[in-house]
Amino acid sequence: MDFLRPASWEEALAAKAEHPTAVPIAGGTDVMVEINFDHRRPDVLLDLNRIAELQEWEVGEDTVRLGASVSYTSIIENLRSELPGLALASHTVASPQIRNRGGVGGNLGTASPAGDAHPALLASGGEVEAVSVRGTRMIPIDEFYVGVKRNALEPDELIRAVHLPKADGPQQFSKVGTRNAMVIAVCAFGLALHPKTRTIRTGIGSAAPTPIRAKEAETFLAAALEEGGFWENGKIIPPAVARQFAELVSGAANPIDDVRGSASYRRHALGIMARRTLGWTWDEYRGNERSAQCA
Amino acid sequence: MGVTRTPTNITQGSQTKGGIGESTLRPDGTLKVTGEFAYSSDLWHEDMLWGFTLRSPHPHARIKSIDTSEALAQAGVYAVLTHDDLPTEHTKYGLEYTDTPVLADGVVRHHGEPVALVAADHPETARRAAAKIKVDYEPLPVVHDEASALADDAPILHPGRDDHHAGQVPHPNIVHRQPIIRGNAEEAAQRADVIVSGEYEVGMQDQAFLGPESGLAVPGEDGGVDLYVATQWLHSDLRQIAPVLGLPEEKVRMTLSGVGGAFGGREDLSMQIHACLLALRTGKPVKIVYNRFESFFGHVHRHPAKLWYEHGATKDGKITHMKCRIVLDGGAYASASPAVVGNASSLSVGPYVIDDVEIEAVALYTNNPPCGAMRGFGAVQACFAYESQMDKLAEKLGMDPVEFRQKNAMSQGTIMPTGQVVDSPAPVAELLRRVKAMPLPPEKQWEAAGDAADVRALPGGLSNTTHGEGVVRGIGYAVGIKNVGFSEGFDDYSTARVQLQVINGEPVATVHTAMAEVGQGGVTVHAQIARTELGVTQVVIHPADTQVGSAGSTSASRQTYMTGGAVKNTCEAVREKVLEIGRRKFGTYHPAWATAELLLESGKVVTDGGEPLADLVDVLEGETVDIELEWRHRPTEAFDLVTGQGFGHVQYSFAAHRAVVEVDTELGLVKVIELACAQDVGKALNPLSVKGQIQGGTTQGLGLAVMEEIIVSKDSKVRNPSFTDYLIPTILDTPTIPVDVLELADEHAPYGLRGIGEAPTLSSTPAVVSAIRAATGLALNRVPVRPEHITGT
């Protein structure tokens, strides 16, 4: 196994172009486990830890450019107000040690349906900045997950950053595991309200071959909110609407039975999480509206 | 070396600092917390090779051929061994039956069974070479439960058995069967106003010790071998290793290395023989260390069990009778199954007075992973079932579950179903009273912080699944009974060698035993005992090895009792010798040397009145007292194979728990808020260690209640051999564990102490499940309880 340690981003891109099968490693929290379990024996490991800019983030007018290696701990500590859904998801990633090492770039690179960041990224919306010696392209997050542990990257591309819109409304993230910390998701759900565009976005983890959105549920809820004038009047969402939303989220999932949980439990739990997170986000939205009016 | 009886009625004073009863700190504590402790996986030797074990991917298969040529041809490979390469006709080993092949002999009987060994100059080279060994398997039908084990056409997994139970078992796929009949359950059932029955199931729990199996074998110049290894019982290993190697026991020199937990999982051999074989074959030191994945295949697990129970009771709440049948899945090899059967049957009644019982326990041979010793050892499975039954009975009678238990609780003088009279304190009702009397944790603790819910106090924790929605509190109680020490007539002894001499002007005691310190704190306690008995401050604990007599296993809650007892016994003999020297040297200077009861305290010989007679340094000047003695607990008897009657257990241990849980009834997630425990420990030699043991055992029981299970598929394959999918409690899953310690002396035991390590593991599980039932109203007859069970999905 060759171990390449590029000193700069340009060197890293050149190395990836030269060794398209090279597996990038940053925090190593996925890659090292796969190597330890002998699930993967890459010919070449491409160590990105010397590239400091991958660990930096920039908060712009409307978006956050989050370097691929910014640790989950950094996200929790520094970007809670800009990226609340991702910050909540980051809290559920493994243990403190792993949160200190791992970043969103790794989750995206592995593209496991169980990656904790995905539901939050899908709910937020955003773009993955994929770079190669050929240039840079922005891949919408909705088009990034293409199969079981497969993503839309070309073999010569590396993830430089993700560009996420700063939250314009409440966001929530909820994850079921069979212990109260340090657990791989049995299933997970991300929800973001986007009052500016009066849209809803969702993300489902560990309940389909890839992370997915529950688009029918989103469309239903957006229409129901619009029809009832809820964005303006800030009324409590009727239980029937919440129930229907929950059912549509459940229905969007395509889970399997495995050692972590049954398919029917995953569907059931997603419905519960959808209903609860909707309640929490909407309460927050109403609270914000009220305090805005008072001010 | 015979048993020497030395006076035990002398009350050594507690003047000496760091003696028994103090919470002296353990020497390994800081090192372990800071990561500096040297575990067996850290062993290193110049020029050493790395061993690797090729394991079977099949649960049951005939091996048609093995081709090792390609592996042997690989650069860096020094040896490849299969069954055909074993040096003697002794090719099997085992704790109770010699039924486990060192390397598979033409057939594999479980997923992960060792088939071949490789030694290479790098672990990765060894692993790759092993992958090049070509094994031609012909899969065979799989035995995976009682029905398939006893079916007419069931494959007989061990044809031609010659173990000591072979003639008595009803079927060759039954490892051992122990019935217990006392009174007349049929007749007594007629008196019952209510009868409840239930079928219960316990999943396969793993010891999940953090230090994987590892050790280093170094070939000796005399043709022998030095083995450094993490184990639970050096001399038991030795007895099994030496014949396979074709060496006399004195040429296999074993030294205990840093042990990262055991919980029963190191009673059976893992890599010991394999490393020795490779070292003797190559003439080089060989290290083997399993990774976590391999560790799940490298040791036995807790027996999964199915248990059928029937109890009756009169309207006023007295239990009339009990019938039960316990089926334990022993897996492919016997391991400790026979003794586990003995425990499960003899403790199946629980800590209750029931005169009329019909009990049967069996262990099966199957193609599932071998199961054997784990903390609680057969009593855990039974406790989950009988405590579930107690709740059912109380409910049916409309009685408070604690009062109902207290009404039927055993006490000193109670006759066990085996006919044994319990002849030391058995404060079962009192433990229940104490645990119930503890203040309850406040309701809705997640609201304590203010506006936002503190998710850490809620089911799901930081996974943020509820802010209080769907959460219901439940409270449950349970109590259990565990035997201490080896039972059923086993000649249970331990050995201690104690030296006392002056080093640098100070009296220093050296305590040498073969006790495996697996984290339980034995070395701390040995030093405390030596200080108390010999009145010294400086105690050196010699590394545990086979240069001293056997200490028996660090299991069965027995080491403080047994090796602690042995250290005390030898110290007493040393003290007698010291006083004899003192009398010889100084007896003429003071009449008290001849007339008074003399003690050793704070480096002096003193009278029982406290008058100092001489400095220990002066007595020991030019002398070394060095004594090694064996020490035994009082003998026990085997259980009658038909009636189960017999004085089978030397001591019993009791703990009670109250569990308080918050259950997210919609998502089926559980947060255990508090697990209060009351336990009688006889005498707390080190109160801090006692508390640690109780909290650790409690947490392990919680793990079984809500998360820990090795999932074995219908075709007998292990599906979750990793800490990703075999979950053990994290600190966020661990509740507050208030501990109430009772010290009622057992007059038969050293210092009156009671073995404590296992009892808290028993009652913790049913208490948690009882609390979940209280919160959900569900029957929940299986552990671990999964979210699917609570949500009906």
Describe the model.
Chain A is an alpha+beta fold and 295 residues long. Chain A has two domains: 1-48, Uridine Diphospho-n-acetylenolpyruvylglucosamine Reductase, domain 2, CATH 3.30.43; 56-295, Uridine Diphospho-n-acetylenolpyruvylglucosamine Reductase, domain 3 (2-Layer Sandwich). Helix content of chain A is 39%, strand content 22%. Chain A is built from eleven helices and 13 strands. Chain A has helices spanning 9-18, 31-36, 72-78, 84-91, 96-101, 104-110, 117-124, 215-227, 230-233, 239-252, 263-294, and strands at residues 2-4, 23-25, 44-47, 57-59, 63-67, 127-132, 135-140, 145-147, 150-151, 158-165, 171-176, 187-194, 199-205. In chain A, the strands form four sheets. In chain A, strands 4-5-10-6-7 form a five-stranded antiparallel beta sheet. Chain A has a three-stranded parallel beta sheet with strand order 1-3-2, with helices on one face. In chain A, strand 4 and strand 5 (63-67) form a beta hairpin. In chain A, helix 4 runs antiparallel to helix 7 (117-124) and helix 10 crosses helix 11. The model of chain A has no long low-confidence stretch (mean pLDDT 96). With 793 residues, chain B is α+β, with helices and mostly antiparallel strands. Among the domains of chain B are: 29-37 and 493-632, Aldehyde oxidase/xanthine dehydrogenase, molybdopterin binding domain (Aldehyde Oxidoreductase, domain 4); 40-140 and 212-259 and 266-298, Alpha-Beta Complex (Aldehyde Oxidoreductase, domain 3), CATH 3.90.1170.50. Chain B is built from 19 helices and 31 strands. In chain B, the strands form eight sheets. A seven-stranded mixed beta sheet of chain B has the order 3-7-1-14-11-12-13, with helices on both faces. A six-stranded mixed beta sheet of chain B has the order 9-18-17-16-10-31. In chain B, a hairpin with a 4-residue loop joins strand 25 and strand 26. The longest helix of chain B has 28 residues, at 559-586. The model of chain B is unreliable at 1-10 (pLDDT under 50). Chains A and B meet through strand 11 and helix 11 of A and helix 19 of B. Chain B: Residues 34-141 form the Aldehyde oxidase/xanthine dehydrogenase a/b hammerhead domain. Chain B: Residues 1-27 are annotated as: Disordered. Chain B: InterPro entries: Ald_Oxase/Xan_DH_a/b, Ald_Oxase/Xan_DH_a/b_sf, Ald_Oxase/xanthine_DH-like, AldOxase/xan_DH_MoCoBD1, AldOxase/xan_DH_MoCoBD2, AldOxase/xan_DH_Mopterin-bd_sf, Xanthine_dehydrogenase_dsu. Chain B: Residues 1-15 have a biased composition (Polar residues). Chain B: GO terms for molecular function: xanthine dehydrogenase activity. Chain A: It holds the Pfam family FAD_binding_5.
